[in-house]
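In the current project phase, we have settled on a layout for protein records. A sample record is reproduced below.
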Amino acid sequence: MLAPRVASAAILSRLDPTTTMLQRSLSQSQPIRMYASKKKGGKKSGKQSEEETEKRDPDEDPVDMDKMEKHMQVRLERLSSDLQALRVGRANPALLNSVRVQLKGGTASLTDIALVTVKDAHNLLVIPNTFGEHTLIDTSIRNAGLGLNPRLDKNAVIVPVPKTTKESRDKLIKSLGGMAEQTRVQIRKVRHDAMRQLKAAAKASMPKDEVRSWEKDIQTATDKYIAKAEELLKAKARDIEQA
């Protein structure tokens, strides 16, 4: 079982650069919006809301399961992206996904203005789409807070990825618990919203056995996505151990 809580920001700040990406990932992660916002028109009276609930079409599903699972999948994909960006001592283009480059007309994502490839096991190669932007890219990577020290190579940029130590690997594995908990919370928020919709439908004389059936389906989907998140984290832990 992974540790349930991530280390505090104060502790993470003292760790070596291996954990820098994790700290940024957790601090920048934003809760996703569960469903569409309410339409304009102000709040309706309790009596009017009850009347509309009673008019619910019995053939209409009380919960959009496809939409619910889509939101859960979004959280899973975000976790997968965050895990890929964690540096574990091997070159991975995803390490630079968060880098933004300051250009004359504003900022742009590094991946939009350059090709990022693996040069070898411990080096990334960044080739700008536009000649002359390699110096801007070098500066942006250096200042991105990733603990990376790129170097210029003609019109390209080489980014060495430092090897991890046993101590840094152990600390990073323990810190994965924070990412696990954050993902579980977000998936359960999706479930909570679905249960709220089901409760509203139940007030419209929805049969109890049907309500229980929907509750079971919602919980089954929730458990499925939480299990998938746990598998992603376990796989990452194994990857870190072997780095």
Notes: The CA atoms of residues 143 and 192 lie 40 Å apart. The longest strand covers residues 114-120. The two ends are 20 Å apart (CA to CA). Helices lie at 9-12, 20-28, 46-54, 65-84, 110-113, 134-142, 166-202, 208-242.
